[in-house]
Design a protein that fits this description.
Number of helices: 1
Distance between the termini: 41 Å
Structural class: mainly beta
Strand content: 35-45%
Length: 148
């Protein structure tokens, strides 16, 4: 059963990030060249130091920019992903409609195997020095990132 836990978690995460009638189709993916005038893919990478379940401090690699539908920031380097403890995440896409972002990260399971985890977050607040996200589409746990 312990060996099935990562698979069950992945199935749950991928089902939660499903297509939802085309809302997150290829036009919002980072490798897509298909962008409309109202959308902009914004990427970033942050290095995490986890303090508690609800508060995470991060050093932002890159610069803050304005984007259609909100404010975001872009990568200062290549945005490689590693484990989250401590680790890095990167924004894989910016969905201007509704202030949703997709985050992809690499995490290690209890056996030390790396697996990619993709999640959707709602942007609650974005200022010059902090970013507050809510897990899911407005009904989950808050996570806060601060510029150091």
């Amino acid at each position: 059963m312990r060996n099935l836990l990562p698979v069950i978690i992945l199935i749950f995460l991928f089902s939660a990030c499903g297509d939802n009638n085309g809302e997150r189709s290829g036009e919002n993916q980072p490798n897509s060249n298909n962008t409309s005038s109202g959308e902009k893919n914004v990427q970033t990478q942050v290095e995490l130091n986890q303090k508690s379940v609800e508060e995470i401090e991060a050093e932002l690699k890159g610069k803050w920019v304005s984007a259609d539908g909100g404010t975001g920031f872009i990568l200062g380097d290549n945005g490689n992903m590693t484990s989250l403890d401590p680790g890095k995440i990167k924004y894989t896409g910016w969905k201007a409609d509704g202030n949703f972002i997709g985050i992809s990260s690499m995490q290690k399971d209890e056996n030390g195997n790396e697996m990619e985890v993709q999640k959707i977050y709602t942007i609650l607040e974005l200022t010059d020095n902090s970013l507050i996200l809510m897990d899911g589409e407005g009904n989950g746990m808050k996570q806060e990132y601060r510029r150091q």
